[in-house]
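User: I'll paste a sequence; please echo it back and then give the predicted structure.

Assistant: Echoing your sequence first, then the prediction.
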Amino acid sequence: MQILFLSHYFPPEVNAPANRTYEHCKRWAQDGHDVTVVTCAPNCPDGIAYKGYRNRFWPQVEVIDGMRVVRVWSYLAPNAGTVRRVTNFLSYMVSATLVCSLETRPDVVLATSPQFFCGWAGVFISWLKWRPLVLEIRDIWPESITAVGAIQNRSIVCFLEWLERVMYRSARHIVTVGHGYRDNILSKVDVADRISVIYNGVDLHRFQPDEPHPGLLHAWNLDDKFVCSYVGTIGMAHGLEVVLDAARLLRDQGRRDVAFWLVGDGAQRRQLQERCDREGLSDCVVFSGRQPKDEIPAILASSDACLVHLKGCELFGTVIPSKIFETMALGRPIIMGVNGEARQIVMEANAGIGMVPDSSESLVEAVTTLADNRDLAIRLGQLAREFVTEYFNRDKLAHQYLDLLHVVAGIEARQEMPSLTVDAEQDSLSTESVTE
């Protein structure tokens, strides 16, 4: 098959959409398929092109692990500020559409969110090429930006919601990364016969249980601490003010043995770090900024527990953060600050302890429970690894996705749509077929 995949984000960027696209496309290319990924010059989250890349009008083409990667021009903007980011999204939509109009006609077009206008680029290209579109939804937009107050003008929101419905109806098939996303989409458009759920997964070879790295801990002054790490974007939706509030409570309780390690960057990092310094919390809250992708397994392995958190609004209860699978694969317990299906997965796996989103008291209770009972933390980590190995193997999920693409493209057609549930025995996790 010739597969054309549109993704605003792609390695060397290290966020979840970049990783998911790369991991799937790499496996499809290894299976002998012709995979082209159309993306931007890597620049997230600072809005500055990474070393070795130029943001130019003429596409930059490279081959990565068998994939042909075409990087188009876009208006680069940091991961902050609504107007500049929307301009960034729109410019990618235009550039990707123009460049793809000159590409060889594929068998199937894929487009993934976030962001919203990447999906619309897929719609335009599927029209131009007369080829079916598979729309991958990893973020409910525009609801996700209105939930954090980024856009409040009701007229604009209504227009975007209309565009959202048209986009869904234009796709031959929709893939979500969890049932919460699926249910949200079905509440807006009647596409039940062409929507599936394919979960995120993890590369079990890359993410394997490992001992802590003393040198890494020492480099960040985390020796002799119970380390609770947060690895990922530090943005408006993630509500990491709760970490600073919890750190202050722990300090007031005289708990100097617990530290929070915030690894990543985003729109809220500077503000949180300034507050941390102002309140004298730097001895128990460490900001290490964005780290190379290859360092993430060592960081997780050097953590005693890992925090997964989003603000407690209803919409974020549909999200399944991909980091839970990487954490589970490394055998580390999760402090779960996300409601909905993501919490259900972690709790069913006995892979961690739940906390109330946005509650510093709940976070303190969870982290001290694990800090005071290291055997419990180890046991939860072992169960996490066992569960993710059985149900969320990236190799298996990538091949299930490929089965779906064959059906949509009309290649090797089958009598019925392949089952895309993770496993027949996982009915307690899902009652339908195929969100993040």
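Residues 137 and 176 are 5 Å apart (CA to CA). The radius of gyration is 21 Å.
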